[in-house]
Structures are given as structure tokens and as C-alpha cells.
């Protein structure tokens, strides 16, 4: 039975931390492949402007270039509108009926997991693999949810932090791969801050990143 990792997020932009997580997941979970799944317009992140789907997809492709077992799925971009994890997993199950699906999420996601749409259905479709995120140090043992912990010294950086640094003209060379940094400069991405569109609604939580 093949083992397929599913790594969803906004990837706005994708950074070295994302790749480090995927590399550790491949090794520790004995995965055959990891699919990066860029979200279209995540409802829980409308408090900030999201770079266009076209740019984010191109940057994800640049980020995984050279990693033969890393792939990108455009399922949520093609679906447009609000995409929920359970729907994405159903599509993967239809495509890979005999594979073991492993959903890769952060500790912040785990804390909110019961608020996601159809959490029980998600656990029937896939198992969870969790990586620690900075600022979320609560005990993971009290969640009453089965998961595997992705261990290791992962790069603690967020796309939000990178966007802020880019707006200020600060260096991001240690956080982004060279091809992505060049792409951002070439297309003048993240050159200014954007206003809040609307606040996050608790019933719209899907996943972060």
C-alpha cells in the first residue's frame, strides 16, 4: 500500500520551513509522495490580502523543483471558492482508493481540529501527522485525537513574517529559496501591506498556512 502525504496551505509565499517539514515527513512517516495543495481563497485568512492563485501556484512549483517525490495538486485552485479539507480528502481518496492518506498539519491546526468541517469524516479518510509551530506550546496529549508527531529542528518561520519583511525591504534569503526570491522580485510581489478585508469567522476555520 502506498503512503501519500497531503500538505495543504495558502503558501503565501512557500518558504524553506515548508520544505523542511515535508522532508522530515517523508523520512519519518515513510511516505511515497507528498502533495502540496495550495488553497484558493482560504476563508479563515481573509484578514489579509492573499497573493493571486497563479503566483502562489508558480512559487509552489519552484519550491518543490528538484524533489522528485514532492508534487503539487491544483484541486482547490480549480474548485475555486471555499475549499474544506474533508472535500479535498474525498477527492484524493477517489484518485488513490488503495493508498494510505496522511494529512500534514501544524499544532495550531490540531488545537482547532474539532472546529473544522466534518472532523470525524476527515479521520476516516486520513491519519494526521503534526508538526510543532512556534507559539503553540500547549500539551498535544490532551487533544484526544490520534496523530503522529513530526520531530526534528524545523525552521520556525511563517509566511506572514516573510511578507512583513518583504514590505520593509528586509532580507529574506535565509527563509526563501533563491528561485522564489528572484520570482518575487521580478514580479514585484509583496511590495506593500494590504488592508484587512474582514475578520475571521469561527465557523469558517479550515486550516492555516
> What structural category characterises the helix and strand content?
alpha/beta
Radius of gyration: 16 Å
Q: What is the number of E strands?
A: 6
Q: Give the second-level CATH assignment, the architecture.
A: 3-Layer(aba) Sandwich
Spatial shape: globular
| Residue fraction in strands | 5-15%
N-end to C-end Cα span? 29 Å
Strand arrangement in the largest pleated sheet: 3-2-1-4-5-6
**Domains (count):** 1
Order of helices and strands: EHEHEHHEHHEEHH
Proportion in helices: 25-40%
CATH superfamily: HUPs
The count of helical stretches stands at 8
Q: Can you give a write-up of this model?
A:
The protein is an alpha/beta fold and 209 residues long. The chain has a single domain, classed as HUPs (Rossmann fold). Helices cover 34% and strands 15% of the residues. The chain has eight helices and six strands. The protein has a six-stranded parallel β-sheet, with helices on both faces. Helix 2 links the parallel strand 2 and strand 3. Helix 4 runs parallel beside helix 6. The chain starts with a strand and ends in a 23-residue tail after the last helix. The C terminus is likely disordered.
